[in-house]
Amino acid sequence: MTSTSTPPILKMGATNCYLIKCEKGYMLIDTSFPIYYERFIKELNRLNVDVSEIKYLLLTHHHDDHAGFAAKMKEIAGCRLIVHKNSVEPLRSGSMIYMNHPLNIRVKITMAIFNKLKKRTFRIDPVILDDEDIVYTGEDDRLLNNIGIDGKIIYTPGHTIDSISVVLDSGDAFVGDICMNFLNFCGIHYRPIWLYDEALVLDSWRKIIGSGARTIYPAHGEPFTVDGLIRYEKLYAAKCRPSADPAI
Helix or strand or coil: residue 206? Predict the structure, then answer.
């Protein structure tokens, strides 16, 4: 079952990817932009891990900085994908959806500059799921246990409606973009820099807090303790309007 040691963080540009020990190998949480595949392989070599040892690839959501080389990983490593049901169609199309608005004007300006400098296309090679892949619907609490990982997947929408997080029994929580420790000069206070629904973000934070999480491992920025999330959830809950999409 899973180790209690600190998980390896593979920094692929602005995106953190994580390796979790599982049955007969590893589960990788997220990739990065397509251009980072070669760097990813070098990082694996540094850790003495062969790409063939990655048996599962869990995508916290379908955006290009998380699923950028997912199709290549599926082809080369032969790994099984684990994705939320709402990820299936955007992954198949290779395009980003479920984006609504930037958190604030500072984020809007900063990301416009970043995207222009990086010549970001917001597209990936289409990822076609097959019968071996796992589509998470929220109905199987033992999904990770079945592959040798002591933990669970929880549905954490708000940044997108296909966002999922992994919370291990150790208290380590891998949250994709539902929490960030990134662009702090923009005043994000752990919130996603791009929002689908802020009330859903706070609902998802409550799920993470209630799941027993102790250390938050975001896809962007350094890990932080759950105390920070608790503090800002209370602050923004008093200001936030109810979700416009309560059925999610």
Answer: helix
The rounded Cα 103 to chain-centroid distance in angstroms is 18
Residue for token pair 């949480």: 29
Phi, psi for 128 (deg, rounded to 5): -105, 115
Question: According to the model, what pLDDT value does residue 43 have?
Answer: 96
Q: Are 100 and 153 in contact (CB under 8 A)?
A: no
- Cα–Cα–Cα angle for 210, 216, 221, nearest 5°? 150
Q: What is the CATH code of the structural domain delimited by 9-95+129-237?
A: 3.60.15.10
> Which amino acid is located at 190 in the chain?
Y
Q: Taking the alpha carbons of 81, 179, 20, 1 in that order, is the dihedral positive or negative? A: negative
| pLDDT tens readout for residues 72-117 | 999 999 999 999 999 999 999 999 887 679 999 999 999 999 999 9
C-alpha triplet 172, 176, 178: angle, nearest 5° = 100
- What's the pTM value of the predicted model, to 2 decimals? 0.94
| Domains in the chain: boundaries | 9-95+129-237
